[in-house]
Amino acid sequence: MILFISDLHLSFDKPEITRHFVHFLQTRARQAKTIYILGDLFDAWVGDDDFTAPNAQIRRELKRLTDSGVTVYLQRGNRDFLIGERFARGTGVILLDDYAVIDLEGEKTLLTHGDLLCSDDVAYQTFRTKSRTLEWQQNVLSKPLWLRLIAARWYRIRSFFHKQKKSDYVMDVNQNTVENLMQKYQCTRLIHGHTHRPARHEFNLNGQKAQRFVLSAWNDEGGSVLCFEDKK
Ligand SMILES: [Mn+2]
To answer: What element of type H or E holds 112?
Structure first.
């Protein structure tokens, strides 16, 4: 079994989601061969030196899962893009680049968090480019942990109000961007999260059938998991 999840947005203020995720890691995840976490596992990530709740527990549970033999891949999202090598070493998860191509049931499949597909949100893409530079990240990570935690809290509040102002159209993926990327990576299937608009879109890509799976966000009631049977 190959499982895909994203957008859990784990945080101190949402203990129910943490509970659902820990339960998942201890039960269903154990039956899987591979798990892909496609970004925004955490609602904010201010650096691998942050072990405040629920981070320490999540790290411990991920480590137990990878130790049990399950392979876990992780893509960073727009909220937790500062996850780094120390986190990976401590949990045994394997970090993936922003775009990853895998063979899924014999079909080349492109994996990405999804924020890069929202190319109509120009303001966000400008911030994204800046915040992925070594200089920006070193500057942020050089600040004391308490300051980064306060800044993250403020950023989350600000982002909540920004989202209210942006139109639905701007917040969704751009179909041209989707098709260009799928052609570039020669994939007929795309799996992503980020938009919190779970769906399975089918369309035509240069005369071929193409699919785009959008994963759903987790909430207090639980989370959904996209599952593929491993035929090998
Ligand atoms: Mn996201």
So the answer is: strand 107-112
